[in-house]
Design a protein that fits this description.
This protein is an alpha+beta fold. It is 59% helix and 16% strand. It has 17 helices and 19 strands. The protein folds into four domains: 200 residues, Four Helix Bundle (Hemerythrin (Met), subunit A); 106 residues, PAS domain (Beta-Lactamase); 179 residues, GAF domain (Beta-Lactamase, 2-Layer Sandwich); 174 residues, Alpha-Beta Plaits (2-Layer Sandwich). The longest helix has 96 residues. A hairpin with a 2-residue loop joins strand 11 and strand 12. The structure holds zinc ion.
């Protein structure tokens, strides 16, 4: 049972008890009044009885005075007393008749005696008025009157005693009734007091409980308020009509930019609430607060806040849900907003860093692949082809060129170009390039002036990176860079240019290293297969090449001719002019041979003044013509040394052709040698094609 019910019950019991007390009090008073009335009535009767007795005595005394002394005034006194006695008796009778305990027999007897005595007394008075000599008679009357008086007095005494008893009984009863009333009232009064005390106690308890509940509610409110105040997230609450009814301080700060108090259609525009793309405004119905009001929960929604007044965009992570009261009824919606701008920025930076790392990894992969290909190149020309193939990809489709410094270091020539690069001169002096002059990358908008070899009108959009390896500058990587200018923002342009520079430098480093390696390799190879004096191949190379050419010719059913060529009288020449001039002569002859043969042919110094040539895909006749032109050219050389002419130089040569004169290198060399001897024997300055002797011819027939 609740305290309220208990209090009510106690209070009602107290009220009912009070009612009962009232009733009892009323009843008691009425009872006491009745009792008092009865007592008073008994007293009136006794009083009337006393007066009657007095008036009777007065009448008797007046008659006696008159009869003794004859005073006429006593007649009036007698009459008055008689009348009063009768009147008093009437009163007594009346009172007695109202009394519930009437004793009429006694009164009737009393009345007859009273009347008899008054009549007697009256007769006595009348007698005395008529006659003065009535002594005897008067004495008789006296006696009779005394007797009657005695009877009357006795009756009246009895009556009085009875009435006094009645009075005593009634007074006792009235007293008892009064005391009972007092006891009941006291009991009920105590009860009322107790119930009122109980009610008071319950009320106090209820008040204390309420006070405690109110204090605790206030503390709860205080706690909630301090939680809201100290919350770093914004908290916004709207009632079911969409009116904003609560914001914590952070929420107030957010709202301060555009004080909107209602979730209207204009709400997203006024506060600048955009979707993830930063361009599309939210619709009001899509906002978490609207969805919360519609009864939905929304979590993890990101909102880009771009204040209409301008300023840095801010990112919010929003969660919301319906607001329910303790009975579970919807009464509005609540949203929590967390500022995630820093996290978002960090995410973006991370994304950029990842993209950059990805780009760098791809770049590194491409460069390493390019490097591998360069390493596999057999000669410098191949490496130029490789550069033309790979560099457009690595350098982002920008036109460019590899320009190589020649061996005399006075010219730079374009060796490879890609994407129709046309803004650099194909040949220029090394000093025309600031990059080459300074030995570091040069170009771009920050450069003070353009290189002279660059001929584009907007000449600043280029990059020259020197190719430096092992301390030697080999050339230049030239890249046109108009593409970077197309980037969407100045930062992006700078980024693109920096990326290009980084890549170009990496490419230049690899190309330079590869070129240096190839150059070195070529030098080593030349040293092993070339004759240092004439620059022609040596004998070892000739043997290798001859085998290779014979295999190829065998496969393709073609001819290969071998020529053995010798300077006539070289010993004599050496003896006459000295070895130095002899060396010059050998170089001159080598030069003529190189000039007169085709690119695919091989010329070598076989030893001393003897040379040999491999003329590919040529029969004896063709070879003869070629060698003859060499012989003619040499014969007409006009050589001088120290102002002295060296005279006419002649050569002798022998030709052997695969497969007719031999099927392997040994046979061919032997056949060509034999032909050479035959030419020598025939007087020199002539050429002989191999003619088999009988024995060898027979052998050849058999094998054929
Ligand atoms: Zn340059």
């Amino acid at each position: 049972m609740t305290v309220k019910n208990k209090t009510n019950i106690a209070f009602f019991v107290a009220l009912i008890t009070l009612g009962i007390i009232g009733w009892f009090s009323l009843q008691g008073n009425r009872n006491t009044g009745e009792k008092d009335h009865l007592v008073s009535h008994a007293r009136d009767i006794l009083e009337a009885s006393e007066l009657l007795r007095s008036h009777m005595y007065g009448a008797s005394a007046a008659r006696r005075a008159y009869t003794l002394w004859g005073d006429p005034r006593q007649i009036d006194a007698f009459n008055q007393a008689s009348k009063s006695a009768l009147a008093e008796f009437a009163t007594l009778r009346k009172l007695k008749s109202e009394d519930p305990e009437e004793e009429s027999s006694s009164l009737a007897q009393m009345e007859s005696i009273m009347n008899e005595r008054l009549t007697l007394l009256n007769t006595s008075v009348e007698l005395h008025r008529n006659t003065s000599d009535d002594r005897k008679q008067q004495a008789a009357y006296d006696d009779h009157s005394t007797k009657l008086n005695a009877q009357f007095t006795e009756l009246l005494d009895v009556f009085d005693r009875a009435e006094q008893d009645v009075l005593k009984q009634r007074a006792t009863a009235a007293q008892a009734s009064y005391q009972r009333g007092v006891r009941i009232n006291a009991f009920l009064g105590v009860s009322v007091f107790l119930f009122l005390m109980l009610t008071l106690g319950l009320l106090n308890r209820e008040l204390a409980r309420r006070e405690h509940a109110e204090r605790s509610a206030a503390e709860q409110k205080d706690l909630l308020q301090s939680v809201l105040d100290s919350c770093s997230d914004a908290v916004i609450v709207a009632d079911s009509s969409g009116k904003i009814i609560l914001r914590n301080p952070v929420g107030v700060r957010y709202n301060a930019r555009a004080p909107v108090e209602e979730l209207s259609e204009e709400y997203p525009r006024l506060l600048g609430l955009y979707k993830n793309d930063r361009e599309t405004l939210f619709k009001t119905s899509e906002l978490p607060l609207s969805r919360a009001l519609a009864g939905e929960s929304a979590h993890g929604l990101e909102i880009c806040v771009r204040p209409p007044a301008g300023g840095e965009p801010q990112w919010m992570l929003v969660a919301g849900g319906p607001l329910l009261n303790s009975r579970g009824d919807k009464r509005g919606g609540v949203v929590f907003l967390r500022d995630i701008t820093d996290r978002k920025k960090a995410d973006e930076q991370l994304t950029v860093a990842l993209q950059e790392a990805d780009t760098l990894a791809r770049e590194s992969r491409e460069l390493s692949e390019f490097g591998d290909w360069l390493q596999s190149c057999q000669n410098i020309e191949e490496s130029y082809k490789m550069a033309e193939t790979y560099l457009p990809g690595i350098l982002g489709l920008r036109p460019g060129a590899l320009c190589i410094i020649n061996s005399s270091r006075d010219l730079v020539e374009s060796a490879a170009t890609w994407n129709s690069c046309s803004t650099t001169e194909p040949v220029f002096h090394p000093d025309d390039c600031w990059g080459l002059r300074r030995g570091k990358p040069y170009g771009g908008p920050a450069s003070p002036m353009a290189c002279s070899h660059v001929r584009a009108s907007d000449a600043m959009n280029f990059l020259c990176v020197p190719l430096v390896a092992n301390g030697e500058t080999l050339g230049l990587l030239y890249v046109e860079d108009k593409l970077s200018l197309l980037a969407p923002s100045p930062q992006a342009v700078t980024f693109e240019q920096a990326t290009l520079k980084r890549r170009a430098m990496a490419v230049a480093e690899r190309v330079a290293l590869a070129l240096a390696n190839l150059k070195l390799r070529e030098q080593l190879r030349n040293q092993s297969i070339r004759d240092p004096l004439t620059g022609l191949y040596n004998r070892r190379y000739l043997e290798e090449s001859l085998n290779r050419e014979l295999h190829r010719a065998n496969r393709t059913n073609r001819n290969v001719s071998l020529v053995m060529l010798d300077l006539d009288h070289f010993k004599h020449f050496n003896d006459t002019f000295g070895h130095q001039v002899g060396d010059i002569l050998l170089k001159e002859v080598a030069g003529v041979i190189k000039a007169r043969i085709r690119a695919g042919d091989v010329a070598c110094r076989f030893g001393g003044e003897e040379f040999s040539l491999i003329i590919a895909e040529a029969n004896s006749e063709g070879t003869y013509k070629c060698v003859d032109s060499i012989r003619e050219t040499i014969k007409h050389l006009s050589l001088h040394s120290r102002g002295q002419t060296l005279g006419t130089i002649t050569i002798s040569a022998g030709i052997a052709t695969f497969p007719v004169h031999g099927t392997n290198s040994e046979e061919l060399i032997r056949a060509a040698d034999e032909s050479l001897y035959r030419a020598k024997n025939a007087g020199r300055d002539c050429i002989r094609v191999y003619e088999p002797t009988e024995a060898t011819a027979n052998l050849a027939d058999k094998t054929a």
